Predict the structure.
Amino acid sequence: MSSSKLHCIIDCSGSMAEYGKPMLLVNLLRYIRQFTKQHSQSAHYFSWQKDIAEVNWPAEADVQLLTTEGSSDIAALCSWTEANPGVTYLVLTDGYFKLTDQQRYRLNQLENLYVVGVGGDADLAQLNTLSQNSYRAEQLDHVLHTIWRPKTATVGPTNRVELAVVFVEDESDDEW
């Protein structure tokens, strides 16, 4: 993945204001910023309610709490993915939104969609239907490493080594 093509989409619906999710979200965003800086990557941040709008935090400033109200429009997310096909999407959400079967199918077809369930009450069952890359908040580090893993990386050794056990008969009568 190109370093300039991560779109972090932050669910700012009213349900994201409950059960400690605002502070969890701030900490997740802080982690993403630190990770991208340490690994010489970049991310663009977007709030998601009725529309998707870019959020700009100065590099030297801390992440600020975003206003959470109303509901997030899943049609806006679908439109965003159609308008920006060459990016990877990292959606931070609790999964409390309504969507049609067609919208669910559209999002599930995206190989570049990563969903992180925010909060202990996140609707993980629904989020799992949106993407094969659906994770809990505590797995964010794994998600970021997966997103920026080189596509040519191989897992495990390329050559298999055969090991053989050789028994040698010893004629001495050692009584151990």
Summary: Confidence is low (pLDDT under 50) at residues 157-161. The two ends are 61 Å apart (CA to CA).
